[in-house]
Structures are given as C-alpha cells and as structure tokens.
Amino acid sequence: MQKETIRILHFSDIHVGTLLRHIHWKKWFSKRAVGAINLLRGRSKYFDEVEEKMAALVAFEKENDIDVVINTGDYTALGLESELELAKALVAPMMIPPQRYVTVPGNHDIYVHEANSHYRFSEQFCSVLQNDLPEYCAGGHFPLVRLVGEHLAVIALNSAKPNPWPWRSDGHIPTVQLRSFEKMLEDPRLEGRFLCVITHYAPRLASGEPDKRLHGLHNADDFLRICSRIDKGMILFGHVHRTYRVDIPEVSIPLFCAGSATMEGREGAWIYEVDKEGNLKERRIVWKGAHYQTVSS
After folding, report:
1. pLDDT above 80 (res 35)
2. Which pTM value belongs to this model?
C-alpha cells in the first residue's frame, strides 16, 4: 500500500447475542448465568438491531474508501461459540483482504473459564491474526503487529481475560506482552512509522482518570509508560460504551475510545486519516436511524 494518506475505521463492542434457549444447560453453572439474567432483564434490548447496524457499517466502510479496519473487541454478549460465529459472519465483508483487518478479543469474548474459551476467538478470527513480526509473540497471537504501507503500523495487545465473579469485568495485559512490546519499539522496522496501539480495555476514561478497579485495566500505568516512548501514534480501545478522545500528560499521543457501534442511543465509531508525515485527522461516526455518517470530532 503506497497511498499518501491511509484511512482507518475503528469500531468496537458490537455485543452480538444469541437466543438463550440455545444455551446448553451445563453452561449456566458459571458467571454466564448472571450475564444471561442481565440480558433477560433488559440489557439485550440495547443491542436488538446489531445485524442491521452492522450491515450499515459494512456499507459505510465500502463507501468511504477505508484502508484498514480495527475492532477492539467484545464481539459477543456471553462468549458463546454461536455468538462468535454470527459476529464473524457480520464483519466478514470487512475482513477481505485479511491483512487489512486487525482485532483483539474483549472480555465478553472469553467470558468465563472453560477448557476451550481462549481458543474460540482464535478459531473464528485466525485469518486476521497473522503477524508481520511474529518473533515478538509472547502469548498466543500477541503482541500482534501489522505493517501497513511504508508509514503506518498497528500493534495489538490482548488485555482481555475471563472474570469468574459476576461483579468483576477488569482486564490485564500480561507482563510478558508488555516486555515484548517495549522491546519491539526498538525494532528498526517500526522506525519512523505512525503507530496505532490497540487493546480492549481503556487505560483512561474521558475525564483522564483511570477506570474503576473492578472494570478497568489493572496495569494501565505500565502500559502508558511504555507508550510514552512513541512520538507519532495513537492508542485505541473499547470496553467503555462511549465514544471519546482524551489527551493526558502521561503520553504525547491521543487516546481514542470507539465506544459501542451498536448500543442503542450510544452508537459510535471513528475514522482516522494518517498521512505519510504522520499527521492525524479524526472524525466521529454516529448512527442516524438507518445509516452511519461522520460528524466533526
């Protein structure tokens, strides 16, 4: 890709659900039972139109000459295989070609401790988990690096983990991933590139403050300390269902939360444009009842 300006679509937290009667009885003896009760009590109504909204987002992506698509996780509501399969089908048109789609799992995608919970996400999205610098992998597929053209790179870190207790939805980037990420920043193949660092959890809220202990990223300070070495770039994430940009003193690069692309009343996402000098322009995307459109940020 030799374009002067690269256009990036960033969305997150689509929370595809499944019919509860299709859940095998054995899967109810876990945190998933509480999640299912929350869906029955009304949370699911905020995501009733996921399929229609995702079809509209796919159309938006095609109409706006997007070069790279980034999804920062939480494809599902309960981490079920059927939900992951449906979510993959909804985003599949954006995954062509696969090297132009970069993603990480969210905490809902590996919702509970099960024998194969860590592998379901990889099985469904294996085609877009290819790594251009595989020597830095320090746990599964991550850190994952995608080199885009001559002047941009996407670095993906996995901060999602199962939370067995219903009152916890916190995350953590494994120390081995952070060490590998820090070493990676010295690699000459990244020198001079604009770096998009993506993970699921928000290192800071819109206020600039850390998230709550039981909902946030435990080692956000360590993560931001490493990111402070980046001169040109941005940090992208989801988890918090509000779309915002925040600039904080800890790092010189901006932080962007995509919010949720499909939650009723809060639908949002971002388009970024990065030129070969590393200049960044961003525009918010909002839902207008039948389609998505950009607005000034």
Report:
1. no
2. 0.91
Residue 183: what are its φ and ψ, rounded to 5°?
A: -65, -40
Distances 136 to 31, 126, 152, 234 between C-alpha atoms, Å: 33, 18, 18, 20
- pLDDT tens readout for residues 180-231: 999 999 999 999 999 999 999 999 999 999 999 999 999 999 999 999 999 9
Residues belonging to the chain: 297
Residue 139 and residue 238: Cα distance in Å, rounded? 21
Q: Say if residue 42's pLDDT is above 50.
A: no
Q: Which domains are seen in the chain, by residue range?
A: 5-296 (3.60.21.10)
CA-based nearest residue to 17, from 248, 252, 295, 262: 262
Q: How confident is the model at residue 262 (pLDDT cuts 50, 70, 90)?
A: very high
